[in-house]
Design a protein that fits this description.
This protein folds into four domains: 55 residues, no CATH class; 81 residues; 81 residues, Alpha-Beta Plaits; 88 residues. Helices cover 28% and strands 22% of the residues. Helix 7 packs antiparallel against helix 8. It is an alpha+beta fold. Strands 7-3-4-6-1-8 form a six-stranded antiparallel β-sheet, covered by helices on one side. Strands 9-10-11 form a three-stranded mixed β-sheet. Strands 17-13-20 form a three-stranded mixed β-sheet, with helices on one face.
Length: 368
């Protein structure tokens, strides 16, 4: 047979051979190949049905292994082996500051669910009432995107109220961008997260603490390091955990969710300092060639996409490797990539501190 699983034509050949090799049969073996004959129809039908049985068996076999299962079959085998569930799309969260120049309007409430928005129209609803006392000029608040997904992870500034506040002088802004919004977890991401499950069954180790952070929806980067006593050089019974979303950003909701999740992973009595990273955006410049017959604009668009993707896998305190960028660019059909195609950065980019998260923005990618 030409492949691991037999085709209908191969099964038909098996049926023909069975008839030919049967001693004393009263059927002329040649009739098997006469289209429309009773024997031809019987063997042909059996072959088609056999191929369907084989296909369904192959699909069931494929769904029994984490590396080969896809879609609902992957959900089933992962949950059966680990108890993990695929992440659904999650909304981004953002920290807000509501302020007013004077207390002339007195006490009032900007209620939970009231909407604010970015200039591009992305809206967030307050998680709880923002309660102003008679003399309060500033209140910190949290808000959640009304639509789940990564599109709400914005670095801009919220300046607009959708629902009119009780005080017309009230203003709003966000000290940091919105973070934590994700799309439905892909098969590749779920497989990768599952593979990280088994080595961390021994809780309390750095890998388990780091893995715990990655179980919080929206967190895609995490690095755990031991805090060292500078006097003795020994571990100081504390851990630094730096986290961020795909763009390297974080919010207070994300950090609190990570701290809560760590209760089931960290060793009792060991303090884990959960911090958001400091994002450093690395510009990237390409000088590439193009194969004849390929759309240059499309090639540039795809190289930009894989370049951004490489940046999203750099852990806090990690290194952006030039070789990773070149390898990703070489995966784009039609692109001619040499060792000199990566103009900027000129080499590997090393994070300056454990809190540094190196990221790449689409707007920071240029082509010569």
């Amino acid at each position: 047979m030409s492949s691991l699983f037999p085709t209908a034509s191969e099964l038909f050949s098996v049926g023909r051979q069975a008839i030919v090799a049967t001693p004393g049969t009263s059927i002329n073996p040649a009739i098997v190949d006469v289209p429309g004959s009773n024997v031809n129809l019987a063997v042909g039908t059996a072959a088609v049905l056999g191929q369907e049985v084989v296909a369904r068996g192959a699909a069931a076999l494929r769904g029994a292994f984490i590396d080969s299962a896809r879609g609902p079959a992957l959900d089933r085998v992962v949950y059966d082996r680990t108890g993990l569930l695929r992440f659904s799309a999650t909304p981004a969260t953002v920290d807000l500051v509501l302020s007013r120049p004077t207390d002339g309007a007195g006490a009032g409430i900007y209620p939970a669910g009231s909407r604010v928005q970015f200039p591009d129209g992305q809206q967030f609803g307050l998680d709880a009432d923002a309660i102003f006392g008679a003399t309060d000029l500033l209140i910190n608040a949290r808000a959640t995107a009304l639509i789940a997904g990564a599109a709400a992870n914005e670095a801009g500034v919220i300046t607009q109220f959708v629902d009119t506040p009780f005080d017309s002088t009230l203003t709003v802004y966000n000290p940091k961008g919105a973070a934590g919004g994700t799309e439905v977890e892909s098969d590749v991401q779920l497989i990768g997260r599952t593979r990280g499950f088994f080595p961390t069954l021994a809780r309390g180790i750095l890998a388990a603490i780091q893995y715990a952070a990655l179980q919080v929806p929206g967190v895609t980067r995490a690095t755990a390091t031991e805090i060292i006593n500078p006097t003795t050089g020994y571990p100081a019974a504390a851990v630094l955990l730096v986290v961020g979303d795909a763009n390297g950003n974080s919010s207070s909701d994300m950090l609190q969710a990570v701290a809560d999740t760590l209760l089931g992973y960290r060793a009792a009595g060991i303090y884990v300092d959960v911090q958001g990273g400091v994002v450093v955006y690395q510009p990237v410049t390409w000088s590439i060639g193009y194969l004849t017959g390929f759309d240059e604009d499309l090639i540039q668009s795809r190289i930009s996409a894989v370049t951004v993707a490489v940046g999203q896998f750099v852990a806090p305190g990690g290194t952006l490797y030039a070789s990773s960028l070149i390898a990703a660019a070489r995966s784009v059909p039609g692109a001619v990539i040499s060792a000199n195609s990566l103009v900027l950065p000129a080499g590997d980019v090393v994070a300056a501190t454990p809190q540094t998260i190196i990221s790449i923005l689409p707007t920071g990618i240029t082509f010569e």
